[in-house]
Amino acid sequence: MMQLIRPFAGVALVGAAAISIATLTACSASSDQQAVAPQASSQQSATVQQNTTAADKMVRKKPQPTPALVAKATDKGHLELSQAIASLLEIESVRIAKSAFTQSHQITLEHAAHKDANGNPIMGRVMSKPEQFSLFIEFGQCVVRRDSNLKTVVLKQTQCKFQ
């Protein structure tokens, strides 16, 4: 048994889906009764069609990326991953562990400590925040994302599996 709800003229909501009155011919209010929709004018039909399209767009959402792990840690995959992260950070290179993304779909990277001419760490305040990255499977491809700005890079050599 479906229940007909009319939030505004020209559009009826049945459950969560918007249906135009012009295309709705019958709705089962009870087992004995049938409701027949009146014919809408062409101007009303166009307005209803626009409202239905807008409602359809709100219902249809882009599939969310699925968190992933590195399936098989290889040298090629590790190199590709470090190059992808470096490009997301817009720097020349970055050093990450070979086990990155093997146990969690997220990693946090800190900037290297500043050192003096002798290689000793310089004491002082670090002003930059750590960066977080996530590994996902999106549309069947392995993707690394910088979480601060949501930019992504598709990984072609790295094999991923669902977390």
Provide structural commentary.
Residues 1-42 have low confidence and may be disordered. This protein has helices spanning 42-59, 75-89, and strands spanning 5-8, 11-14, 17-20, 26-28, 34-36, 66-70, 106-109, 131-138, 141-146, 152-155, 160-162. The protein is built from two helices and eleven strands, in the order E-E-E-E-E-H-E-H-E-E-E-E-E. Helices cover 20% and strands 29% of the residues. The protein folds into two domains: 5-59, no CATH class; 66-113 and 127-162, no CATH class. The chain is α+β, with helices and mostly antiparallel strands and 163 residues long. The strands form three sheets. Strands 6, 7, 8, 9, 10 and 11 form a six-stranded antiparallel β-sheet that branches.
Shape: globular
Q: Secondary-structure element order, as H and E?
A: EEEEEHEHEEEEE
Overall number of domains:
2
Number of helices: 2
Q: How many DSSP-defined strands?
A: 11
In short:
20% of the residues lie in helices and 29% in strands. It is an alpha+beta fold and 163 residues long. The longest helix has 18 residues.
Topology:
Blueprint: E1 5-8, E2 11-14, E3 17-20, E4 26-28, E5 34-36, H1 42-59, E6 66-70, H2 75-89, E7 106-109, E8 131-138, E9 141-146, E10 152-155, E11 160-162
Antiparallel strand pairs: 1-2, 2-3, 4-5, 6-8, 6-11, 7-8, 8-9, 9-10
List keywords for this structure.
three-stranded antiparallel beta sheet; 2 helices; signal; alpha+beta; six-stranded antiparallel beta sheet; 2 domains; 11 strands; disordered N terminus; 163 residues
